[in-house]
Amino acid sequence: MSAPASARPPIHDTHPDFQPETAHLKGTVDAMLRQIDFWEDRDRQMGADLETSIILADEAGEHAAMLSPHVHHPYFGSLKVRVGGREQTLYIGKHGFRDVKGPHSVVGWDSEVGSLFYSDALGWTPRRGGQGVIKRRRQLDIAAKTLHRVTDLYDDEAGGDTGGREEVLLRRLEEGSTAGMRDVVETLQPEQNTAMRYPAGTPVIIQGAAGSGKTTIGFHRLAWMTNAERGPHQARAEACMVLMPNRVLATYAARILPELGIGAVNVTTPESWAIGLLGLEKLEVTDRTLTLLLTDHDNTRRALAWRRAKLLGDARMLDVIRTHLWNRFNASLRGQSLREEVALNRRDPQIFALSDTDLHAILRDVFAADPLSGYRAGFRRAVEDLAISHLNVPDDEEASVLRQLSAPITALLGRIFASTTPVTEARRLLGSPEALAASGLLTEREIALLATDPLSGIPTPRRAHADATELPLMLAVQAFTGGIGRQVGRVLEPFDHVVLDEAQDYSPLLYALLGRATRAGHLTALGDLNQGMHGYKGPSNWEAVQAVLPGAEVLTLGRTYRSTRQITELGARIAATYNRAAQVQGVDRDGAEVQRYTGPADAPNGELPLIAQAVKDAQAAGHVNIAIVTRRAVDADRLAEALRDFDTDAQPITTQEHRFRGGLVVLPVSLAKGLEFSAAIVSSANVQTYDESTEYERRLLYVSASRALHWLGLVSAGELHPLIA
Q1: Cα 127 to the chain's mean position, in Å?
Q2: What residues does ATP bind to (predicted)?
């Protein structure tokens, strides 16, 4: 077992290359400053004319602004390589820099050469030159233009692997948590690097346990995708999207994006993206299935709600909806026709006419083409193309003809498509057993299940609302009728790349829709089947996702880095009772024993004094960012208020509008998932709160107990849950 970082002697006291590396760092900083001064001197950015000079000066200013933040930390590692009998040292940083007048260039971490720093490979084939050989890998800890430590990770002359990579990793893992997701560019492990750089153009599903770094890898993969070396697969940051399960986590994670140079990426939730695309921003989104699962003790009703929600998100529903729309639009077309007189230059007025039969043929062709912009736009385009073709319209008169036909075509489209809105059409489908049966894909039993309402006892908002389980159906109607993708003005285009976090909680139907909305092969899903808190919406296995994303590859991260050995072992014990994924190995990082706080079940103040004591113990151990995790939001609200009587002031995070700013917080497990804290306290950690006989409840307990980096406390008035006792 590795010794704690604090117990190791400072490496820079004895490393023989500390002074030469210090000198090289100074030279690199000076070279960067000279380059920035050159770019910022507008008098030196001269072109052939004033306009060109202004453009050159603006571009130079942008280059200076991009490089300036990296002057204080130019690089974090180096590679000594031999290519064609010649040795050279390459320095690896977050931002590439070319020193045109000296030896102080920096290679970007996201380049193909930069990848060599993270891998275990010792050879590679450069684009030019002979076979390359890695002679040394070295980590360089730099802050504020100062070198603090030199650690060799691999040294050919010293016998190969030095154990330095694990040493650097442990040193980083022993740091406290922050109020935002951490950048791991400097400490990417070989398996993480392989997953992050999986060939572009292939859909990737990354399965990893709590703390395996999958979310961070997804963000880094997005940054890697924006590198020009990706060629035709290169993504534009502003054309990418990250979907996260709630806004608390989205805000927490998005803080890392500017550090990776992709601050323009849109980080949002599936619900926010969906209602934005539907143009229903004032629609309130509920999740009544989750409310029932967390509050109802009738397991029969819970099971029924679970099965119905799963069916709503089944990938077959895409073709159920397509068949329903085909029947609806064909019915709307009966008896319809188009006949319009069109004026053309130097010719007699022409008649453009389409019969009922013609319109049905157009609809059939549009359905077959399945355009990204949707059937309505596709139908309009098809009619316009027929008009231009049938009337032999010259190029210079096309705009005039289309203007003349605009109003009658719009009226025709209104008669066919106007009554088909995503909300009403999805609900019309669910309310019609005949429509559900039309595709032949659903059994009678499944149709009957969709007709039931196990959520009837769960209140609904007074204002217009939609349930989270209905949204994919509404999105499917939108995708077919109005199109799906990235909105650019009035035009829809595919996203360059989409990342899904907590991917085990997204329905196969939503995956199918995102596959339509994104460039082929440009989707990265990050999840853990063991943490499926919203499994009623998610796939039962990754094969269900691969079925709707052709060519998708599942990659498994075999290590978890978040927690100490003691916390990881506890989580593994819980997950072993329902494990849906490969076993995960923790980092051999020793820490404090898991603390258990119990008292009489009938104590006057219940577990309040126990929680207050746990908070004081965690703070005494030096932890600042501490979470008290409850099962429900209402428990968090109640607990935050009650703890004030015990001199414990915790910020409640009970809705998605709250933000995690660090310090002591109390929040439900549904909002804690994806976050990490230096210390975590699981309240009411007993069978009364987490039903031992229900897999869903054990999943909740696993998520609650896996939030801590260094210190974990388990609290119960009465006996602790047997899985953690």
Answers
A1: 33
A2: 208-215
Bridge-based pairing state of the strands 491-493 and 486-488: antiparallel
Neighbours of 182 (CB within 10 A): 16
Residue with tokens 């703070």: 619
Q: Is residue 341 domain-resident? A: no
Alpha-carbon distance 89 to 160, whole Å? 17
Q: Average pLDDT, stretch 527-542?
A: 88
Strands 626-630 and 677-682, by their bridges, are parallel
Enter the tokens of residue 709: 């980096």
pLDDT tens for each residue of 224-241: 999 999 999 999 999 999
Q: Map tokens 């590439």 to a residue.
A: 96
Number of Cβ within a 10 Å radius of residue 681 = 31
Rounded Cα distance, 444 and 565, in Å: 50
pLDDT of residue 130: 73
Does residue 422 belong to any structural domain of this protein? no
How crowded is the C-beta side of 580, counted as CA atoms within 13 Å? 19
Last residue of a domain, one of 134, 162, 191: 191
Asked if residue 2 has pLDDT above 70, the reply is no
Indicate whether 1 pLDDT > 70.
no
Question: Side chain identity at 355, as an amino acid letter?
Answer: S
In this structure, are residues 676 and 709 in contact, taking their beta carbons and an 8 Å threshold?
yes
Q: At what angle do helices 356-369 and 375-390 cross, to 10 degrees?
A: 120
The CATH number covering residue 662 comes to: 3.40.50.300
Tokens of 11: 């490496």
pLDDT 10s digits, 80-124? 999 888 899 999 999 999 998 899 999 999 999 999 999 998 988
Angle, helices 471-481 vs 375-390, to 10°: value is 10
Give helix 356-369 / helix 317-333 axis angle, nearest 10°: 160
145, 168, 191 - which closes a domain: 191
Is residue 43 in a domain? yes
Residue 9 has pLDDT above 70, yes or no: no
Q: How far apart are CA 431 and CA 441, in angstroms?
A: 17
In order of 153, 360, 458, 511, 609, the CA distances from 288 in angstroms are: 52, 41, 6, 22, 33
Per-residue confidence (pLDDT) for residue 13, from 0 to 100: 61
Token pair for 604:
């006057």
Radius of gyration of the chain from its Cα atoms, rounded to whole angstroms: 30
For the stretch 235-253, what's the b/e string if a residue is b when 16 or more beta carbons lie within 10 angstroms of its beta carbon? bebebbbbbbbbbbbbbbb
Binding site: which residues? 208-215
In terms of phi and psi (left: phi > 0; alpha: psi -120 to 50; beta: otherwise), the region of 441 is alpha
| pLDDT of 400 strictly over 80 | yes
Phi, psi of 214 (to 5 degrees): -65, -40
Annotated binding site for ATP: 208-215
φ/ψ (deg, to 5) at 187: -130, 25
Q: Report whether 458 contacts 288 (CB < 8 A).
A: yes
- Residue 224 domain-assigned? no
- The Cα 595–Cα 616 span in angstroms is 12
Q: How many residues does the chain have?
A: 725
Domain region containing 598: 565-717
At 198, is the secondary structure helix, strand, or coil?
A: coil
Q: What is the pLDDT of residue 10?
A: 46
- d(C-alpha 88, C-alpha 332), whole Å: 72
